[in-house]
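Could you help me review a protein record that somebody else here produced? This is what I was given.
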Amino acid sequence: MHAANLWLWASLAAPSVGVHTLWNLGNGFELTVNVDSNLLSIAHRGNSIWETVSGQAFLSASAGDDEVLAANGNFKINEVDRNKCTNQKIRDVTIKSWQESGNDHAAVIQGQLTGCGNATPHFSVAFWVPSKFPDRVAFSVNVDPGTSSDVATKLYLTYRSSPSEDFYGLGAQGSFASFKNQTVPIFSREQGVGRGDQPTTLLENKDSFFAGGDQFTTYTAVPQYISSKSRVFHLTEESSAYTTFDFTNPSAVTVRYDALTVGGYFMQAENMLHGISMFTDYTGKMTALPEWVDTGAVLAIQGGQTKVNRIINQGLGLECPIAAVWLQDWSGTHSQSVSYMSLNVSRLWWNWESDTTLYPTWNEFVQSLRDQYNVRTLAYINPFLANVSTKPNGYRTNLYDEASQGSYMIQNFTTNSTSVISSGPGLDAGILDLTNAAGRSWFKDVVLDQVWSANISGFMTDFGEYTPIYPDTQFANKSIDPFFYHNAYPREWAALH
């Protein structure tokens, strides 16, 4: 995670850097570098789209490993910053060959970070206009930590904003609209129940570690924002380390990135709607929902075939159009106690085959809803595989056993076995290792044979945020750092489907 990348460019030119130099990035974009004041700015056809802050280093780094406390998909991160660099010195700016650039070149700024204790990190920052996206500027930052005993482990990128600028986005965030004056972490996790409101948060935390969450815990954290000035910033898909966006300075944004190499894009849109369109040019655009979704209600029901039939008949008898039913309990349920209340909650069996008690004729039942009522069926699935050896009404296949034998789940190298994830009392499971090609292929067959084969019309693909990051977590791809990969897992899980 913290290893410095090698910069393997062939230098085309290395002119001496004056106090104030201008570099053509292509397609009307120009980079201005003022070495004496450590100032950078990027303009497009004369209009500024990005610039650093006068009197403040645009790049910094610090030592120390962030502390992560985790249980049941709840992650609490205590940030650790030692010997944060206080300044920087630009050594040179050169034009380098760059494969992804529209004009095959990038402007590369190199220098040294200072005031870092005993460390003397060097840095490189590259800017270019991508051939795939000629309406924006891409960047890549690399910090070489050096050989100090207290080496840098993370970097900070700081640039100018406006005191009147509001910031939106950063994934599925529920507590604020604009994030002005906030510091927002980017880390996928259980979003929490209560999220700071009392007494709910306190009660949830009593039941399970950090289960109440806080104002920024979210399943879907995305390192991207769009501002009220129609400025768009986002990191690349490959830049998946833990990140925070600090908007507390009225005139600056600081991105704290928990690794030493990061990439991203700056964009200036015509308006905010155009900014969203520019962003989805990179991420891909959501396809339109099928027409049947708009033909009636989609009812979420639990309780089995008899109950589903009864509710459908009641609805249709009241002339309520029904497009589909979502039956997340198709794989069976069991009770789980909640410690702060004298009650049990219903949890699902994660074995991805139909339950013989609730849905004894699942395939035929799904088809009958379609034929008799023109009602479609939606199911449920997640990347967990629960050990169903204690399931009261039995099972046809124990997918946990199959995946364990094939080492298809994320491993614990201390025990040399599956890394068991707990989701409360009586619910222990492994999680599919998406870096294992054989495991992915096996799971695809499971989904085709045991989920889609019933002629369902879709399903909820839940979870992804539980990916373990313990010191002894091990993936099939042993080069992967669990802390770095954690944020990538939800995207990989969606891509699998």
User: Anything to note?
Assistant: Confidence is low (pLDDT under 50) at residues 1-18. The two ends are 27 Å apart (CA to CA).
